[in-house]
């Protein structure tokens, strides 16, 4: 079982009188990000944020996302404050931001005519000025990149036929220098991660979009999103060059960012940035796509440069809690507090339930399904039986918008509730009381100052923004008594000889395991890619590079820990 790490220093210094169960200043996050996703302006009523761009400016962080009516500011990558402005075109998709000297520059997609480029020296104030009122390239999904030598470059593209383009800009006028260069186009016959479908099952051209350039040790890393934002397979591919405009060569480790399963899937159309400690982060678009194809959320994942040719985004257990470090880290294991999922498929009781949205949907680890009470009244509730006394460290409450009619950001959009815990389902104690809270957090994440021991949890509604009291995920994290699973046996891999982008994996399931995480890559010591499944004994992956050989291993996990496999399988 993996070693557990507990950090009490912050709690002791700042919260000396907190009793068990009280909420302290968090040190961890849990995807999807806990921010105020805006209701879209058109029907059906649903929330959206996508195509995120984050920049670090004067040691603080600014997050921009499509169709959000504003942007966010953070000092720690954990808590985000919303900022709005009358100066920026927030209804345009795919914002691009770059820091140049003492200012932040902004632009967004504009495929129907000229776009504008804005700047500010005080982004927290929300005041922006136009620096180019008629950018001359009609484009979608822009990206601005400032090189070390002060030269400015522009990348763009969003098409299922056209390539990703790049061009140099005049750093004073922000106008193109020369003609755009075609950087690369799709090759879905050979690159499985480019194929559309939730499981890359469609052999057809993808949407190539979401360019973002990162420079590291003299190399240029141009990422792009495929195959489509509505798919669980939404991912970022990566090409590498010695010069900003190429020529580009496909990276060995692809997709660069991928999360095809889990509670919420998708990790495409992203931005890669450094925090103030020098750590790289990858903030990505995650998909729900039930009420509308563009019903999306945001996820934040650590990224690493193992060497100049091997950058990767770590998405293993990517919707479990992990900590945001206050120092430079070199390995994903330093971020995982080993709080395991305790709520998967556990018995649930509710005050009421709609026929098409039964109570088990709240614990099935699928954000695309949800439980809904019959009303949004304050007497509606849901409780979980963890079936044994567990140590609880954190809870994530993923509210669903059922029967809502809200459009846009309106006053009174917030959730109020009481979260309680019990040993016997009779005597209840308060875990957190948000009956007076007026913050709009549809994926509310509660990290406890110190863990509690409990078997039962109950969530009671006080107020929802509109519609019915509904949850797509009542997720509990911590530690259950017992041991981690046995090492997985009879693990095998068979590549499809007719389609080398496809491999079928099988294994003997462990009775004590609730899920498995497959780790794989093109080198035996660089298993950067992750694919998590629950309650299965086989998996077909269709996102391989037809020209690469691969190595696979499989880890089992349950409510008590993770058992890493010591063996790898090689396929040519």
Write the layout of secondary structure elements.
Layout: H1 9-14, E1 28-29, E2 38-39, E3 47-48, E4 53-57, E5 60-64, E6 71-74, E7 81-83, E8 96-100, E9 103-107, E10 115-120, E11 129-135, E12 143-146, E13 152-156, E14 164-169, E15 176-184, E16 209-216, E17 219-226, E18 235-241, E19 249-250, E20 265-274, E21 280-287, E22 296-305, E23 311-313, E24 322-323, E25 340-341, E26 348-350, E27 371-372, E28 381-399, E29 416-422, E30 428-433, E31 443-463, E32 470-479, E33 489-495, E34 503-508, E35 515-521, E36 529-534, E37 538-541, E38 550-558, E39 561-563, E40 569-571
If you had to describe this structure to a student in words, what would you say it looks like?
It is a single chain. This protein is mainly β and 572 residues long. The chain folds into three domains: 49-335, Tachylectin-2, Chain A (5 Propeller), CATH 2.115.10.20; 343-479, Jelly Rolls (Sandwich); 489-571, Sandwich (Immunoglobulin-like), CATH 2.60.40.10. 1% of the residues lie in helices and 42% in strands. The chain contains one helix and 40 strands. Strands 25, 26, 27, 28, 29, 30, 31 and 32 form an eight-stranded antiparallel beta sheet that branches. Strands 35, 36, 38, 39 and 40 form a five-stranded antiparallel beta sheet that branches. The longest helix has 6 residues, at 9-14.
